[in-house]
Task: inverse folding
């Protein structure tokens, strides 16, 4: 296949300049320039994020919220500033509605744990058929504990929610709903505002799993009016081990703490413990201070580029990659929703996705191969796994060309 693209660069978007901020990109893998297309698993970190962590450890390292000494005050200030940055990035009404967690998984478990006290046998929890295991298993565990029933809104062959079926599943029995904003296995972007509106007609609290969406889509939790929104920092150019739960204050105030320990209490005696106020009630123990500061730096960095510019660039890459994919006979895209984010999941006739992953690595190209922690999605499409290329702000059209050339090589090799 002759690859001769007409590159429609987004005006003013200087991807080469951005790439210079990501040291890891500048390396060879197996003798080839690295092409990193596994961003849905985790994204690379800009120098500003790395520097913020080094700065913290070299200058301010101390435990937070407890010391009166200068380093502790500095560490606390940086940690709480990061909370403000997250709140502002999601347009939360107050930074008190931001709870730091290890990531999306822990944030979902925190909420599921609290709702175990609120649900009873016969109640229903609604999810969709395109969820990541992180947004399935905690709800199954909740149902097991309470006797509630898990309902799953189906998807169509394009990997889109079937709207009528979803609406039909919402009723007075529905007591909680958890929905991904964007599917990690398919790239589908759900109509979450419309879904939230329908769910609210029945007073259903809604959790949005934004792990995939937040690096690509401007999120406004007040406009969405969701009760909860969770994400992981490491997909948002921040370190691993840090993420956030947004929760409406009226919800968080009436939720049981997730873990007991230091910092989440106001008074402890052997007879009784009074919990700290929100959000500290949910942050037991010494948190990931360095990671939180890194998350704040990542948000500053994203804001300096502009989330809308990033989204436009990534959508253009996806469109380009999708067009080129259509020219490869043996390639089938899994997930062809009308509204899609920067994820290209695919299978190749006669080649196992794991072989695709391995052989691409031989060409310096990092893609994911597997079930992507979304086994029910694989079952639905009748495939054991897919190969997945996922784009970030620093990817280029040339890298898409390299991906397509890599796939062509593979097809040739496997005959
Ligand atoms: N929700 C979605 C939609 C995800 O894509 C992931 C991780 C999670 C939740 C869990 O995030 P964690 O940071 O708490 O693990 N998704 C992927 C992926 O697609 N490949 O590796 C991890």
Result:
């Amino acid at each position: 296949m002759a690859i001769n693209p007409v590159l429609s660069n987004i005006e003013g978007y200087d991807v080469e300049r951005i790439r210079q901020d990501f040291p890891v990109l500048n390396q060879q893998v197996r003798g080839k320039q690295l092409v990193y297309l596994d961003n849905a698993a985790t994204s690379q970190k800009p120098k500003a994020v790395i520097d913020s962590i080094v700065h913290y450890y070299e200058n301010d390292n101390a435990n937070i919220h407890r010391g009166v000494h200068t380093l502790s005050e500095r560490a606390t200030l940086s940690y709480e500033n990061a909370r403000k940055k997250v709140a502002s990035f999601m347009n939360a009404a107050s930074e008190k509605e931001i709870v730091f967690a290890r990531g999306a998984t822990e944030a979902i478990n925190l909420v599921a744990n609290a709702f175990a006290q609120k649900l009873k046998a016969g109640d229903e929890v609604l999810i969709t058929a395109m969820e990541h295991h992180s947004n399935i298993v905690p709800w199954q565990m909740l149902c097991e504990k309470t006797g509630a029933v898990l309902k799953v809104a189906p998807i169509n062959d394009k990997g889109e929610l079937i709207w009528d079926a979803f609406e039909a599943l919402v009723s007075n029995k529905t007591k909680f709903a958890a929905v991904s904003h964007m599917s990690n296995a398919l790239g589908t972007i759900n109509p979450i505002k419309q879904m939230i509106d329908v769910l609210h007609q029945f007073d259903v609290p809604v959790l949005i799993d934004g792990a995939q969406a937040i690096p690509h889509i401007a999120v406004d939790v007040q406009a969405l009016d969701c009760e909860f929104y969770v994400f992981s920092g490491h997909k948002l150019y921040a370190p691993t081990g840090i993420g956030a739960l947004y929760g409406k204050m009226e919800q968080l105030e009436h939720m049981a703490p997730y873990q007991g320990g230091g910092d989440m209490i106001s008074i402890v005696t052997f007879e009784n413990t009074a919990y700290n106020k929100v959000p500290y009630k949910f942050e037991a123990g010494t948190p990931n201070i360095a990671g939180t500061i890194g998350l704040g730096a990542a948000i500053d960095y994203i804001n300096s580029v502009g989330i809308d510019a990033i989204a436009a660039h990534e959508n253009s890459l996806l469109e380009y990659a999708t067009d080129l994919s259509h020219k490869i006979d043996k390639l089938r895209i899994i997930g062809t929703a009308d509204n899609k984010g920067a994820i290209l999941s695919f299978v190749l006739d006669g080649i196992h996705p794991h072989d695709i992953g391995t052989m691409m690595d031989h060409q310096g190209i990092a893609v994911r191969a597997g079930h992507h922690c979304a086994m029910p999605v694989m079952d639905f499409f009748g495939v054991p796994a897919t190969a997945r290329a996922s784009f970030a702000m620093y990817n280029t059209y040339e890298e898409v060309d390299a991906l397509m050339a890599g796939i062509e090589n593979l097809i040739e090799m496997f005959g």
